């Protein structure tokens, strides 16, 4: 069986998909007779699913078209990891929300169900890790919930934290913390033999346990609750693990420390440091007290909770950003008791307009000190513009000790953004060990309204980006930015990775594939079948350098050309001969962007190039066509149009001004800087040629051949100015100058004169025309 949420398509488009962390099975004994084996699964949309492992529920199988699952809790904040479970004290599930708290959910056999019963007093930044629990079996009081705390995407100022597993009055109690530098994204601590291990983004692994090898024995200090504006003073005591001299201590607001240094300690001697906590705002505060010594530095964590009677909200406001009309976006806000005694909710005012609160706390709900309730709010605009229409409202929650107002805002857009990545493959080719090569790709918004980058997953390891694309980056319509990636191999083996980017354009994540120390020509040759299976047959040359940093290799049956921008493509036969004669990749055609391919009519063959094409048939041979002339030919229907196949390369006109290709139609496309590219063929082309082509009185064509309004004739206008008009009864004749002007004034061919039956001629007396 399988399970997929009933709204999986939308979740995937919004990069809010299920399974950002794997499912977790509850231990045997936690099921019921109806559901003996249970799973817990979480996703980026913040819903927590309780599933029957033997009947997962499929997709949309409930009677109302919803999810046929055992239970759903939330939505809370999105989860970019997996849940943790503690089997003692009746059973608890733990999840870390994205920019939300560590949350404890109590298991109940009634249902069965999961109920949120407690959270941490502060929020965990994006890239924080998943919880893991250590204990002595299910013995009550023996467990700790370990989790890596990160401040945000960079992983800076990370901590390893341990919490008591059972919340007290709705709050999870911090038992231990230690600074670890820069956290790895979504890291999970490892535990074994009474020790906890954490890896960091800068390539270190820290082990925590007893005994310690730190120069000072420390432990974190928690000031507890302190009223906003007040000061709590304390003394932190550390013990020297060796003879040393303390040369300084430092911390940052809202904490302070003072110590006259230097202080010399012998092994085992203690040092008392006066510290203080002065919160300026309510909420949890964390800091680091760092000791500098002549034997190295060490640090301990400081924690405190600023309190203030009433209610608070995290975040303080909700900004939905730009949302397209007809789409919906949901965010959550935590309403917290910021005081020191329980508060009772006395009133709730929901947001209005395009905003809606899907689950409001009921009047009479009691929120314990430090605890919170989550209110999901959705934004579904119904009308907007390409530039956006701002909308706002507010959520108001009142208690017996105060109230909190949460402003909500959004911008309604009627257009649509579109994320485009170019190229979608970066090939670094061969880079020696110890050297680096940097390439870039373009992140563009090809839509009509601003695009917001919702997720950007940069590679790590041998592929890396110093300046990573920021989540939340807004790209205006028609604008773009460049993202660089550096490849620094540590060995000569092939390497591959991906840079994954998601925008708010309703599409799934898009990927740029990164390849290094690969041989794209050999890889492509093998894809085509290699020496025994490919029409290229055996190689007749080694790889060699080509224009602009590209590569090429020749084979018995053709050549493969490669560049970082175009990838590898094969060119063969007469097309290859023509391509090489024109200068290959160094010519105005650039590199091939297709292999040789058959034309739709089954007659010809072609390759497209960066700036043109070469077309071949048995009757016409292979000829290059590019630029505006190629565009005009394409607009007329390519080889299936009236012009047929090219019979010349693009060639300069005798007057040195224009360019042209002749075609098998017969026909031609002529171009000049002042007239652009236009097609001319048949009897009209024959008459123009007889009058001297572009050097004659008519000049260059300024239109393609067009039908006359009466549906009888055909014509081209020229830069002379002049025209050639044709009809079945009159043939093709040129008319220009003052005679053309008078004919036009009389109504062209629809006037009393009809179609011209001669070219402009001289009168017998040699005076007139």
Could you tell me the strand content as a percent range? 35-45%
3D shape: elongated
Secondary structure tally: strands = 58
How many helices? The count is 7
How does this structure look, described?
- The structure is a single chain.
- Helix content is 7%, strand content 42%.
- By secondary structure, the protein is mainly beta.
- The chain has 5 domains: 8-210, Neuraminidase, CATH 2.120.10.30; 212-308, Immunoglobulin-like, CATH 2.60.40; 323-332 and 346-413, no CATH class; 419-516, Immunoglobulin-like, CATH 2.60.40.10; 553-750, no CATH class.
- The strands form 14 sheets. Strands 17-24-23-19-21 form a 5-stranded mixed sheet, with no helix packed on it. Strands 26-33-32-28-30 form a 5-stranded mixed sheet, with no helix packed on it. Strands 35-42-41-37-39 form a 5-stranded mixed sheet, with no helix packed on it.
- Strand 10 and strand 11 (158-163) form a beta hairpin.
- The chain is elongated, with a radius of gyration of 37 Å.
- The termini are far apart.
- The model has no long low-confidence stretch (mean pLDDT 91).
